[in-house]
Task: structure prediction
Amino acid sequence: MLTALRAGDEHAFRLLVERHYPMMRRMARGYVQTDAVAEEVVQDTWLAVVTGIERFEGRSSLTTWLCSILTNKAKTRGTRERRTLPFSCLGDGNTNEPAVDGDRFQGDEDTWPGHWATPPRPWQKPEHRLLSLEARGRLREALEELPARQRLVVTLRDVEGLRSEEVCDLLDISAENQRVLLHRGRSRLRGTLEDYVEQA
Amino acid sequence: MGPGVTNNLTADEITCRELVELVTSYLEGALDEPTLNQVEEHLVMCDWCVTYVEQVQATVDALATLPPEPVPGRLLDALSAALGEARDRRRESR
Result:
């Protein structure tokens, strides 16, 4: 793949763009104000990749390298617009939000306080249902609706498959902070899929 | 309630409500040993929480296979043009 990219192979580049475009758009959108500017940032990033790929030494993964170029471009662009917010000020959502609605657990007056009152039901044949295009489409919508920081962390970790250290470096956050954001995001998305499966 | 026992639980047991908040740290391998033991002991006893952990894992797996999004034609055109220029530059430098 890297050899094809270094040779300027258009097909290889297209595959890479298609694979990473959603993540890059989502990431850029975290730093700039409009979808249109986010798209420009993604485009600038790819132009920088085309001219810089020969210098890419493979010390980090290609995805991490892409993300670091994108983050730099997005920050520069955001600063120029003077309307950007640093990652630490992006929407966090309510960090005290429980992973599961408190109503679903037994209360202090019940027999087993803190244990399930309305337990989760197994998702029958998850391999069928969750991989159905409709379910994954719903999941993607729910991902877009997450608070910005949760969305970025879940995208980088679970959609793109980066390691937690890589995500901490890219976003300049602590491991603990990263885990909290991942937890909130994943918990909410599980809830979305649960609603979907229960209604289906 | 006897000493060391709260809410029908011994002091070192955790509730389902607590477990769902530990799932990510559990899957990340980030729990300290005493807490890890508590989580694992709970999971041995509680099929509902096993189901919950499976659902979180299924969600993570589904995120890795999200349907593709169309890439804007503008971006592909710009990419194509940049690759053409890069080819020309390489040819000239040869």
Q: What stands out?
A: Chain A has two domains: 2-80, 120-199. Chain A touches chain B through 58 residues (CB under 8 Å). The CA atoms of residues 17 and 46 of chain A lie 8 Å apart. Residues 2-80 of chain A form a domain with the Rna Polymerase Sigma Factor; Chain: A fold (CATH 1.10.1740.10).
